[in-house]
Q: What sequence folds into this?
């Protein structure tokens, strides 16, 4: 940090008759204005935190006045590092004002984009026939589609939310993994379900 700089002011007074006063000295201490810079993660998932670290000119002491907005879930204090998260997705504003030795900083403001979490995917088997199985699952927002794996074998990705299998073997298990592919910083989600073709009637 920058140390306070002393400045000496000297006053010598001469009156109308020419008399000169003794010199009077005073030291004025000029303190540097602190800064309020900080680093942060600009885009985060709703399930994670933005890592905040103060990077301004204050090296010790000081006051840190953070404002994370009304929707903040876990705020931080001091210099950091600390993680901050919010209750809902959207663009959030972080503001910081600092002060040191009575000198206030200018305000620093940054925006964090909180992206929505991916809702769970859940598979059902509405039809389990002797040679047919229908897998069905819910539509999941903020995804580019679904990666499918049937009995350990990858299948072609799809944007559909169901899979109809025909010509199957009677009385056999079929296991489907549906992995919903995320379009944002939040992780994708998956579900696994085993369905069984029914036995032929006697």
A:
């Amino acid at each position: 940090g920058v140390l306070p700089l002393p400045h000496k002011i000297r006053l010598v007074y001469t009156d109308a008759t020419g008399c000169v006063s003794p010199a009077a000295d005073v030291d004025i201490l000029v303190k540097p204005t602190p800064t309020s810079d900080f680093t942060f993660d600009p885009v985060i998932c709703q399930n994670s935190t933005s890592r905040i670290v103060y990077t301004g000119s204050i090296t010790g002491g000081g006051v840190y006045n953070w404002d994370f907005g009304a929707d903040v879930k876990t705020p931080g204090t001091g210099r950091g590092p600390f993680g901050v998260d919010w209750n809902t997705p959207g663009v959030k504003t972080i503001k910081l004002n600092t002060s040191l030795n009575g000198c206030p900083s200018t305000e620093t403001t940054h925006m964090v984009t909180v992206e929505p979490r991916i809702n769970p995917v859940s598979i059902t088997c509405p039809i389990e026939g002797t040679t047919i199985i229908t897998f069905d699952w819910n539509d999941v927002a903020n995804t580019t589609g679904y990666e499918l794996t049937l009995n350990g074998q990858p299948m072609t990705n799809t944007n559909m939310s169901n899979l109809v299998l025909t010509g199957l073997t009677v009385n056999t298990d079929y296991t489907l993994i549906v992995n919903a592919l995320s379009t944002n910083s939040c992780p994708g989600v998956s579900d696994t379900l085993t369905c069984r073709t029914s036995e032929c009637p006697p």
User: Anything to note?
Assistant: The mean pLDDT is 90. The chain has no helices and 18 strands. The two ends are 89 Å apart (CA to CA).
